[in-house]
Amino acid sequence: MEHIEQAGVHSGDSACSLPPYSIDEKKQNELISQTKKMASKLKCFRLMNVQFALQGEISMY
User: Fold this and answer.
1) Residue 6 lies in a domain
2) 30 CB-contact burial (10 Å; exposed 0-12 / middle 13-18 / buried 19+)
3) Does residue 4 fall inside a structural domain?
4) Tally of domains within the chain
5) Residue 8 counted as domain residue
């Protein structure tokens, strides 16, 4: 899922797109990999909320 509004905007009516429309498959796979690594280290095997901030080629995990 990808939020459509600019970073820093927060409201109860946030707009999202599924599947992500501007994140290429390589970057999506990297985010999935990072999420699985975090869940494993945290021993989390149920629901987990993870949010990544991406800007250009710079990723902030």
Assistant:
1) no
2) middle
3) no
4) 1
5) no
One DSSP character per residue, the chain reads: -EE-SPTT---TT--EESS-SSS-HHHHHHHHHHHHHHHHHTT--S------EEETTEEE-
Task: Look up the pTM and report it.
Answer: 0.67
Tell me whether residue 5 is in a domain: no
| Averaged pLDDT, 4-8 | 65
52 is in which domain, residue-wise? 13-60
* ω into 19 cis (within 30 of 0): yes
Q: For residue range 27-45, list pLDDT tens digits in order.
A: 889 999 999 999 999 999 8
Which positions ≥6 away from 61 have C-beta within 8 Å? 34, 52
